[in-house]
Structure prediction request, 180 residues.
Amino acid sequence: MTLSDLASLGSFVSGLAVVASLIYLGIQTRQSSKHTRALISQGRADHALRQNELMAANPGLMEIIIRGMTGDEAMDAVQGSRFHAYSFNSFLTNEDEFRQHRAGLIDDARHAGFIKRIRNMLRQPGYRAMWQMQRDGFDEDFQLFMDDLAHDARQLQPVDYAGNWKAVLKAELAGSAART
Prediction:
C-alpha cells in the first residue's frame, strides 16, 4: 500500500466520521427541540394551575374577576385596580403564547385551542374594555391579533359560565337517572 493509498483511505474514514457526526448532531437537535417543546407545554400547564389555584383560594379575587369580566360598573377603585392587574397578567400570558407560536415552539392545534379560549374571554364586555385600556402597552402585531379576536367576539353573546354549567349538569343528572 502506497502513501497515496493510505491518504485516500484516511480521507474516506474521515468522511465517514463527518457523516456519522452530522447524523448524531441531527438526532441531538431533534431531541433538543422535543425537549424544549415539552418544557414550554409544562410551563403553560404550570402557569394555568397557579392561576386557577390563586382564584380558587381567594373568593374575593374570583368575585372581582367575574364582576370585571361582565362589566360591573359598581366596582370601586380598588376592585377595578385588581381587575386591571389580573387582566394585564392575562394579556402578558396571551402575548407569550402568541410569540411562542410565531417562533414555532407551540404547534397549530394547541394554538387553535388558545385562540378559542381567548375569544371566549373577549366575549365578556369588561375584558374587551380592559384590552382597549391596555392595548397600547403591547407591540403592534399582538395588538392586531387581539383586536381581530375582540372584533369577532364582540358579535357573540357573553358567556354565562355558571348558567352553562347548571344546564349541562341538569342534562347529565337526567341522563344518569335514565340509565339507572
